[in-house]
Amino acid sequence: MPSVTSVLCVDPDAAFAAITDLPNLPSWNERIIAVPEVPPELTPDAVWISQLHIPGYTWRSRSRILSLDQATRHFSYVSQTDDGNPSHTNWTWQIAPHSKGCAVTVKWTLTPLTFWRQRLLVHVRGWMLRDEVAASLRALEAHVLTIQI
């Protein structure tokens, strides 16, 4: 399972709060340009819709919470395009205290279930995600520092 871990100089609870603040995901995740639908509560099976963008392509993604535990700062969900394609990605976020603030680990599993996603897109997307996640974690840190001021 691919993963990225970054040490952020922010409070672990503040980082977890930002990660689970769905309407404000576009504030620190450059791929997410909008979150037009959010659930009333963050509970298992709750669903939200994000609008994502890469150069030349914009799409909607439907995400469903698998688990959320504020005490252990663990958040997992499954996301897939909102066009009926069965391919999906499982995401897991874990935040642990660290002497400098917190260590955030993001893991993901791409599950391509259609021909082109198996043959091409999974390789391109998998290659892109490591850099995108690392950049998002840097932006998350800046975002949390901004809202804590």
The CATH superfamily title? START domain
Structural class: alpha+beta
CATH domain fold name: Alpha-D-Glucose-1,6-Bisphosphate, Chain A, domain 4
Q: For the record, give the distance between the C-alpha atoms at the N and C termini, rounded to a whole number.
A: 36 Å
Strand tally, please? 7
Helix content: 25-40%
> Low-confidence spans: pLDDT under 50, at least 5 residues?
none
- Could you say what the CATH architecture is? 2-Layer Sandwich
What would you call the shape?
Answer: globular
CATH class: Alpha Beta
Q: Would you write up a description of this structure?
A:
The protein is of the alpha+beta class. The protein has one domain (3-148): Alpha-D-Glucose-1,6-Bisphosphate, Chain A, domain 4 (2-Layer Sandwich), CATH 3.30.530. The chain is built from two helices and seven strands; from the N terminus they run βαββββββα. The protein has helices at residues 12-19, 115-148; strands at residues 3-8, 32-37, 47-54, 57-69, 74-81, 88-98, 101-111. Strand 4 and strand 5 form a beta hairpin.
Topology:
Elements: E1 3-8, H1 12-19, E2 32-37, E3 47-54, E4 57-69, E5 74-81, E6 88-98, E7 101-111, H2 115-148
Antiparallel strand pairs: 1-7, 2-3, 3-4, 4-5, 5-6, 6-7
Helix pairs in contact: 1-2
